């Protein structure tokens, strides 16, 4: 049912200890949507993802999964279809194939998604380029057919063509029904594939809309990245 958000927050505050880093957040991501979460360093993007994933317990407010308030921790949400991709999390001493097997992903499926990985299947993940490592991480997440992908700076430090490749894979998965929430520094690139955008500043949503609606604000969004939180 695409009318029910896969994940949504109501007046969510979350942080570390009792001090909220993000406050009063009302966000939602629906099946088939790519949603971008933008904002300067320290705005609370990672904290938001951690609260959505169940890695942080809300200070107040709630997270709803398919309309139902959800108190389950990260590992339970993973079983229910949540995938989290953060810093390139590969086992550097295992080869690409074994990295996939650890994630219960048949190497053939990963190669369908990223043919680039085929010639690297027997290569130690520590020897892969940054882009290949991130393709491996993303393949491990997407090939298990999650319902929700939370991705924290998927494209950090990667070459523009690789960034395009990763974002296109997310877009295609969303076209098949995935709900995706992407924290990205590449504002323009992510706006090319996103359906909606939230801009966070100092732990609050200060702007929201479609990329089309926000085009005129692009300069303001980008310069807010340069300003300190
Ligand atoms: P960045 O792009 O720099 O990661 P962000 O928007 O993801 O920024 P967060 O990482 O969510 O921001 O951090 C927001 C605030 O929370 C910062 O002031 C940071 O110092 C603080 N913070 C982050 N992690 C912790 C932690 N584990 N314990 C205490 N404070 C933290």
From TrEMBL:
Family annotation (Pfam families): ABC_tran
Domain of life: Bacteria
Keyword GTP-binding: no
Gene3D superfamilies per record: P-loop containing nucleotide triphosphate hydrolases
SUPFAM superfamilies: P-loop containing nucleoside triphosphate hydrolases (SSF52540)
Family: Belongs to the ABC transporter superfamily.
Family matches, as InterPro entries: AAA+_ATPase, ABC_transporter-like_ATP-bd, ABC_transporter-like_CS, BCAA_Transport_ATP-bd_LivF, P-loop_NTPase
Protein name, UniProt field: ABC-type branched-subunit amino acid transport system ATPase component
ABC transporter domain segment(s): 1-227
Keywords linked to the UniProt accession: Amino-acid transport, ATP-binding, Nucleotide-binding, Transport
Keyword Nucleus set for record: no
